């Protein structure tokens, strides 16, 4: 059984990104790294267009990033929205989560020592990795280790299906690990173009992400050292 329930003070950890819901923000809603992923199971486009290959190659150097944005989650008849500040490097992730009004709800740190979530009241949950952390809080595992690739606009390492590209060679949709990832908009003023509106869906959850700003300049990024998430 998960440590927290979605109905109140639950933790909806997202996309190496994450979400937190609370009594104040939950509202019932109607039910309704440098690698090439394996395209062996692509069903719609068996040959990757040359323009798409170029765009994916341009994304390969994008390993470290910082984003600011908003997100919303619908799950089990409830909805939650909030703001996210995420710094990702090859070794570490630091994710700060805020309510729609700007109050900090939680901080998540993930590194080689494990993952730890600290809520606004100082309570902590520790786990060996981010997927285990979501299993403890949600009752099922979210593929957070893949989200750092998905949010950049590329499949993570492994089998992919249903890949589609837009006229600029940017990925518009694919399926991976039981999730359908759709890219509704890209920020073309930065190069390579990076997503600004993303939708992730599986049978249990629907996650919408609006990215308001990107920073992919490594020297501007910093995260806590690896000791800060030790799972004692």
TrEMBL record:
Pfam family, one: LolB
Residues annotated as signal peptide: 1-23
Predominant cellular place of this UniProt entry's protein: membrane
GO BP annotations listed: lipoprotein localization to outer membrane; protein transport
Superkingdom: Bacteria
GO cellular component: cell outer membrane
Keyword set, alphabetical order: Cell outer membrane, Chaperone, Lipoprotein, Membrane, Palmitate, Protein transport, Signal, Transport
Localisation: Cell outer membrane
Membrane topology, record value: Lipid-anchor
InterPro entries given in the database record: LolA/LolB/LppX, OM_lipoprot_LolB
Family statement: Belongs to the LolB family.
Function: Plays a critical role in the incorporation of lipoproteins in the outer membrane after they are released by the LolA protein.
Subunit text: Monomer.
Protein name: Outer-membrane lipoprotein LolB
Species of the source: Candidatus Methylopumilus turicensis
């Amino acid at each position: 059984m998960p440590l927290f329930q979605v109905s109140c003070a639950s933790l909806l950890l997202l996309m190496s990104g994450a979400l937190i819901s609370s009594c104040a923000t939950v509202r019932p809603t109607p039910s309704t790294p440098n690698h090439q992923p394996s395209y062996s199971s692509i069903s719609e486009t068996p040959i990757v267009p040359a323009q798409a290959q170029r765009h994916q190659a341009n994304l390969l150097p994008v390993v470290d990033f910082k984003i600011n944005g908003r997100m919303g989650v619908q799950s089990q008849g409830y909805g939650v929205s909030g703001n996210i500040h995420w710094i990702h490097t090859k070794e570490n992730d630091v994710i700060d989560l805020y309510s729609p009004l700007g109050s900090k709800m939680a901080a998540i740190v993930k590194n080689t020592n494990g993952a730890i979530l600290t809520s606004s009241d100082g309570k902590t949950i520790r786990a060996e990795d981010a997927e285990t952390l979501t299993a403890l809080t949600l009752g099922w595992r979210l593929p957070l280790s893949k989200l750092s690739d998905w949010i950049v606009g590329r499949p993570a390492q492994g089998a992919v299906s249903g890949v589609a590209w837009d006229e600029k060679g940017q990925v518009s949709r694919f399926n991976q690990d039981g999730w359908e990832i759709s890219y509704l908009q890209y920020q073309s003023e930065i190069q390579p173009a990076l997503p600004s509106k993303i939708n992730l869906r599986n049978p249990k959850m629907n996650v919408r992400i609006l990215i308001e700003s990107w920073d992919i300049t490594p020297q501007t990024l910093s995260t806590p050292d690896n000791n800060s998430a030790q799972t004692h």
